[in-house]
Structure to design on (716 residues):
DNA sequence: TTGTAGGCGTTATCAG
DNA sequence: CTGATAACGCCTACAA
């Protein structure tokens, strides 16, 4: 079997507790003893068994991030920022992925027990209908980039998100103000009841407010079986729309990836963007700033969301009280894909746009 | 304290071992007893403590993936494929991220002990000079998308990668064959000794083979302090090059992200691609197929690499013998960004390219 | 089929 | 400052 603390103790002629003290930087230990032990540890390549440690420990100064959707293109950034913030608090942390079929709350429940977590952050996931389960999590947690339902008997939880409906509304309003009246939307699958639906709602509300009738053929839903907000799916949706020949002067994709797929499809069909058709996305992926044409989009405040998530978590850990959820404002970045478009446009579309903020 | 197996036992009026048996689907247990127990477990929301389990267990049917660089854009795909493959073997698995400063091998060593892993896969990372440490990993492991140095006293390890130098060579050769003589390269930081250097070597060799003298000003290195292969860094590098006014007819970026940054910079400078300048990348990110113009690149066999990694791992787990490392061929995808370019070009550049394979 | 007891590798407690 | 020893929660002989 592998090396244990006992072996080290024996080798150094000390008791196991002394070794443990050396390993954990306890103050009450002779300097030389400590060094002798650490040297032996180094030499033999001894590694303490974390399972045993966690089993015994009550306190861990550890938090975890539970990530539901690896693919989500801005989770990488969020994780990096969270990592920094958590380290600043002198906590250790780790990231746990949960698969498509796994339940994120179950994973959390296990982890809290296993690792003696002080708190955790959910990155993505879907929590409607999981109230009861969530209530079982005994440590504070924050749901990041997703809505959190009300949880009976649970105080120390919070959420950070943006107002998907409202931001979506702003985007469509932006198009309306330019005078667009035929605005197609590349939306989520029909039965979606997550952010996809919210963004669609925003679209509908904006049109209503601007007295533009809804055209069913301009609302394109993803297929149930290909429901990812991917470039490929955006591409396909756009192609179908083009094939049908319905007129439209603007396309709003509920995700940047879909917008890019759409742009590709438009390009291949010979439709010039933005001159002949405006295109807008949602999310604020950095890709969109580099695309040609650069893509108008709703930029999610990624860094801030990450920071606020961590902040809320530690607030709860320290105060043992809940903190209210936060809805952060996003930023509409107008880029070339909608520039100078629409009946209300005044001048020609600028050809180059180094001046457009990336 | 939280619920334990004892509480459940007491509640059901049985012994702890019976509960354990129910929990672990042991065959020798009365059906009704089992159901009674499971019902109680469900009711109380009991969750076994994994630390205790792992401590006791010797064997776990678990493998782990250790990911070094969250940002790497094709790791997401690789992870998904690996996940599928590992599940097919009826193993459980999890993904562990290690931070920039953390050492991946140390993380592995800990994990093996803690979770009683049967094997693990490193995704990314850097292993030169870590031979001794790697030798301490007592279970089989595979290094994916990175080189593995020779490890004394360690049989059951392997690697999966592509030949970065050779593939890079092919890409540059491709440009040479088109008649390009002034080929700029956007390369890694000067002191890079990883894939960045290999790709640069391939560039040099290709030029040598085609009797094209090296122009120092055409070799643009990333700055040490901004060494990521990012769009932003590619953009900056390209801008500098353009500013200097050196002539070139093609740009080869050692990563797709940098290529896209470069394309953006060229666009903003009014240089038409591919008409006035060819651009090529490396990696095969799906994004390149949707960019306008679509980007010629070296497509890494992502799926295959993932599958082969898992395959090799299980081969080693089962046979307890090492398997030789594999170097997989990549595919050069010619797309619009180099189409019909160079002195040897025959016709005009096609305007649309729905026919170009995405 | 079920219960009891011992031990997995640590850490915490408490004497020394 | 140091060393025994009892947990931590679970699994697994072994006995019943």
């Amino acid at each position: 079997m592998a090396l244990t603390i006992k072996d080290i103790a024996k080798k150094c002629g000390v008791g196991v507790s002394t070794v443990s003290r050396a390993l954990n930087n306890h103050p009450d230990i002779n300097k030389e003893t400590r060094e002798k032990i650490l040297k032996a540890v180094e030499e033999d390549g001894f590694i303490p068994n974390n399972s045993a440690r966690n089993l015994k420990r009550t306190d861990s100064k550890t938090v975890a991030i539970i990530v539901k959707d690896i693919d989500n293109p801005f989770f990488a950034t969020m994780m990096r920022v969270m990592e920094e913030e958590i380290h600043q608090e002198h906590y250790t942390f780790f990231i746990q992925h949960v698969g498509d079929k796994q339940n994120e709350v179950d994973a959390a429940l296990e982890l809290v027990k296993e690792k003696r977590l002080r708190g955790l952050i959910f990155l993505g996931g879907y929590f409607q209908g999981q109230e009861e389960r969530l209530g079982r999590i005994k440590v504070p947690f924050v749901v990041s980039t997703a809505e959190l339902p009300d949880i009976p008997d649970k105080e120390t939880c919070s959420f950070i998100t943006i107002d998907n409906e409202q931001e979506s509304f702003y985007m469509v309003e932006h198009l309306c103000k330019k005078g667009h009246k035929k605005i197609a939307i590349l939306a989520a699958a029909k039965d979606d009841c997550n952010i996809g639906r919210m963004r669609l709602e925003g679209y509908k509300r904006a049109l209503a407010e601007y007295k533009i009738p809804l055209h069913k053929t301009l609302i394109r839903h993803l297929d149930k079986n290909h429901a990812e907000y991917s470039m490929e799916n955006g591409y396909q949706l756009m192609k179908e729309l083009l094939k049908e020949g319905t007129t439209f002067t603007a396309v709003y994709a509920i995700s940047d990836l879909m917008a890019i797929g759409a742009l590709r499809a438009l390009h291949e069909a010979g439709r010039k963007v933005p001159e002949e058709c405006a295109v807008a996305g949602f999310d604020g992926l950095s890709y969109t700033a580099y695309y040609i044409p650069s893509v108008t989009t709703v930029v999610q405040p990624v860094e801030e969301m990450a920071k606020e998530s961590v902040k809320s978590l530690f607030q709860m850990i320290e105060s043992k009280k809940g903190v209210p959820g936060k809805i952060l404002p996003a930023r509409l970045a107008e880029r070339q894909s909608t520039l100078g478009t629409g009946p209300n446009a005044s001048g020609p579309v600028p050809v180059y746009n180094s001046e457009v903020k990336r």
Q: What stands out?
A: Chain A touches chain B through 50 residues (CB under 8 Å).
